[in-house]
Design goal:
alpha/beta, Rossmann fold, 2 domains, seven-stranded parallel β-sheet, 16 helices, 37% helix
């Protein structure tokens, strides 16, 4: 089905054409007709399936049909769990809504507080936000949510995982009743928790589910290596030197310590790399992502929490350097490649510590991940090692942290012993 088959506003069709979209993805084909008929939609959709375009096109069409003026009180609200996802949604909104005249504003922490506050006062049609800072501005009465005609909740399952559900419920209670607005909810899984949220805050939502065979993009070539932990980087180096079509590679680790170590190893061995972990401040994260998008960084190392919301085109390879502890994270991870009809490769390392997650991941996928033959020793390259940072002794670390309890204590006199007599001068 083509977008031109829908009765969409000319300005929306123009944005779709300039974005290079022509045919609908499965989630778009099922959700857009429902949304255009003013029904609430709860859709199961993975990253890279076109869900963002699905709700933006529906949202633009509704707001343009109403034709109301822009004020400091938004007409639409899009909630997302991460700052990176907010930024990506706004970028897609700018592209698809280029000719609509609708004003879109991102609201999230880590950026200029007063600038975002002033943007809301100047007038906005659509807010794209993470829960925390939105509640902050709302409680200051910078804007009202009583004018909202359409609500979108993106990656609802991640709202639960990241502990935002209490804040999300608070925001939803400030909106007009569900019968007076339209709601679209998207989630990687329509779990009982997510569906409970839908029953409470949506108006008899139409359920859209992608079949298990579509759990991952068709054009992702998945492969698994059984490898010892100490040989993993040598194998990765072999892959980097043998794969000739690597444009951008995203590497996933389970801890920020491992991420920093992998980043250091990549740079020490001549590869341009960046790392996203919980310790990286927001402005630096955005600079790293921009360099990754521009191709200045070939390899980006990330933890699951730090990577949520990364939507970068032309990621040709995703490497699960550590197999994820959550089976759903596997699908989220590899969904960063093979986007918008492109092809990609997902490579996973199963070592002696993470191999135990493999059976659960394959059960969730509904098939086994193709495994390689035993690794040829010639394929694993020698590499430059990096020295591990030495941690100072415990007492010194506590001193640096300003912990009074860590200071050396004065020696105590044994009970019953008299103090020594002063020496004669």
């Amino acid at each position: 089905m083509k977008f031109t088959e829908f009765a969409l506003p000319a300005v929306v069709l123009r944005g779709i054409a300039e974005a290079g979209f022509e045919r609908l993805t499965p989630v778009q084909e099922e959700s857009i007709p429902l949304a255009l008929s003013a029904k609430d939609v709860a859709a199961q959709a993975q990253t890279g399936t076109g869900k963002t375009a699905a709700f933006l096109i529906s949202l633009f069409t509704r707001l343009l049909a109403a034709g109301q003026e822009t004020t400091n009180n938004p007409r639409a609200l899009i909630m997302a769990p991460t700052r990176e996802l907010v930024v990506q949604i706004c970028a897609d909104a700018d592209l698809l809504g280029k000719y609509t005249g609708l004003r879109v504003q991102a609201i999230f922490g880590g950026m200029d507080y007063d600038k975002q506050r002033q943007a809301l006062k100047d007038g906005v049609d659509i807010i794209v936000a993470t829960p925390g800072r939105l509640i902050d501005y709302f409680r200051q009465k910078v804007f009202s949510l009583r004018r909202v005609e359409m609500l979108v909740i993106d990656e609802a399952d991640r709202m639960f995982d990241m502990g935002f559900i209490k804040d999300l419920r608070y925001i939803l209670r400030q909106l007009p009743p569900f019968e007076k607005r339209q709601t679209m909810l998207f989630s990687a899984t329509l779990s009982p928790q997510v569906m409970e949220l839908a029953y409470e805050f949506m108006n008899i939502a139409e359920k859209v589910s992608i079949e298990p065979k579509q759990m991952t993009a068709i054009k992702i070539d998945q492969i698994l290596y059984h490898v010892s932990r100490r040989e993993k980087f040598a194998l990765l180096l072999g892959l980097l030197k043998s794969e000739t079509d690597i444009e951008r590679m995203l590497l996933f680790v389970n801890t920020k310590i491992e991420g920093e170590r992998l980043h250091a190893l990549l740079e020490a061995n001549g590869f341009s790399a960046g790392v996203l972990s919980g310790d990286v401040v927001q402005k630096k994260r955005m600079r790293i992502l921009e360099r990754f998008k521009l191709g200045e960084i070939q390899c980006l190392v990330a933890t699951d929490v730090a990577s949520r919301g990364i939507h970068v085109d032309n990621i040709t390879h995703v490497v699960n350097y550590d197999l994820p502890q959550d089976r759903e994270d596997y699908v989220h991870r590899i969904g960063r490649t093979a986007r918008a009809g492109a092809s990609g490769r997902a490579i996973s390392f199963a070592d002696e510590e993470t191999v135990y997650q493999l059976a659960e991941i394959e059960e969730y996928l509904g098939h086994a991940i193709p495994s390689t033959m035993p690794i040829d020793a010639d394929f694993c390259f020698e590499y430059k090692r990096v020295a591990r940072k030495k941690r100072p002794p415990l007492v010194e670390r506590k001193k640096e942290a300003g912990n009074p309890a860590s200071r050396p204590r004065p020696r105590r006199r044994p009970a019953g012993r008299k103090p020594a007599a002063p020496r004669a001068e």
